[in-house]
Design goal:
By secondary structure, this protein is mainly alpha-helical. Helix content is 33%, strand content 6%. It has helices at 59-71, 89-102, 106-119; strands spanning 73-76, 85-88. The protein is elongated and about 85 Å long.
């Protein structure tokens, strides 16, 4: 405990409050002390116009985007013959969902039923 260094004394930070009335001439502008005329008024925002809103996509745009993605052709791993294969994505997605349902995945079954209902194909 003998080798302890006493804490360094620092100057107290100057308050950021406005000076009392009549002392505007005595106010010193400096670091973290902006001129009085350029300070924000109480309740004034630093970003009055705010962040601009992004337009929400319309339902037709989302449907067109999903359709475009599902109809694109994708590369498949080479088959037994070693040939490069390509297929549309939509049938592959449906086939994978059907395989998951066949394996007993209840969530996949619910999603497949929702999809069939949305397409108007729920016959069972």
């Amino acid at each position: 405990m003998e080798n302890q260094v006493p804490p360094a004394e620092t100057a107290p930070a100057a308050p950021l409050a406005l000076p009392p009335c009549g002392d505007a001439d005595a106010y010193r502008v400096g670091y973290r002390r902006p001129p009085l005329h350029s300070r924000w008024k109480p309740g004034q925002s630093g970003n009055p116009s705010g962040r601009p809103r992004q337009a929400a996509p319309r339902p037709g745009q989302v449907a067109a985007l999903v359709e475009q993605c599902l109809l694109q052709r994708v590369d498949l791993p080479p088959g037994p013959s070693g040939r490069r294969r390509r297929a549309r994505l939509a049938p592959l997605v449906v086939r994978k969902m059907a395989e998951a349902v066949d394996a007993g995945d209840v969530r996949a079954m619910v999603e497949l039923m929702k999809s069939l209902r949305a397409l108007g194909l729920s016959g069972a």
